[in-house]
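Worked example 3. Consider a protein that binds adenosine-5'-triphosphate.
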Amino acid sequence: MPTINFHDVTKDFAVKDGGFLALDHVGLDIEDGEFVTVVGPSGCGKSTLMNIAAGLLDATGGEVLVDGVPVSGPSPERGVIFQQYALFPWMTVAANVEYGLKVAGVKKEERRRRAREVIELVGLTDFADSLPKTLSGGMKQRCAIARAYAVDPKVLLMDEPFGALDSLTRVRMQESLLDTWGRDRRTVMFITHDVDEAVFLANRVVVMAARPGRIHTVIPVTLPYPRTEEMRLSPEFAALRAQVWHAVHHQPAPLEGIAS
Ligand SMILES: Nc1ncnc2c1ncn2[C@@H]1O[C@H](COP(=O)(O)OP(=O)(O)OP(=O)(O)O)[C@@H](O)[C@H]1O
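Given these inputs, the predicted complex is written out as structure tokens:
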């Protein structure tokens, strides 16, 4: 059984002159421990798809199953990370990371232990008592990742998490995320606009098409893990990048009768 199963998902948004079909019968299985990236032109429905999996939006048709159970709302088993860090500015890194555990009713001692563990995992131990405003963008995002990890989610849903970072920090964050993922092989669905990022991280790259949002093609990434800096410069990487780039930039024609 796949960990995340998008079963015939359709999303129709009500707009003033009728409906806008944002997702049209999307089917996708993400297996246990897989790292899947999703790319596609702006407006093809990437965030809508992720928000439905997160339980933040309802599908108009079809459903998303996580471990065979239909998603009916947000759940701690699905850790969600957005581009904007969404940290509480008045709380230290440690308090931000502990917050979800506190809400879940975890006792203080256990909260402290778990927070220390995940803060170390993302390399922020020296900043555990710092406020978010004193951290760089990359450190804030690592704090957000630690917060998602703290509650031990079954899957991670990441929507352009590194989109606001400079390119060097972004590359470091990709490496650090893969390092963490390599240790626990949590199932990840990761949305990005960046073709290099999509290839570097993934087992499979899902390329979506727009009008209506649908899956255009799925490209397996045959590079082994751990992924290294040298791999980014390899001919195999270049070939995969070209394949994904081509799929993103040569989209199928919009379907007839789709409202805009
Ligand atoms: N609440 C809404 N009401 C009406 N239309 C919406 C709503 N949310 C999204 N849409 C439309 O649905 C389509 C898909 O939006 P979505 O944000 O999922 O795309 P995306 O692929 O994530 O885009 P981007 O890459 O620019 O972030 C877009 O055309 C958008 O305008």
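Take a moment to read the result before moving on. The CA atoms of residues 137 and 165 lie 6 Å apart. The chain has eight helices and ten strands.
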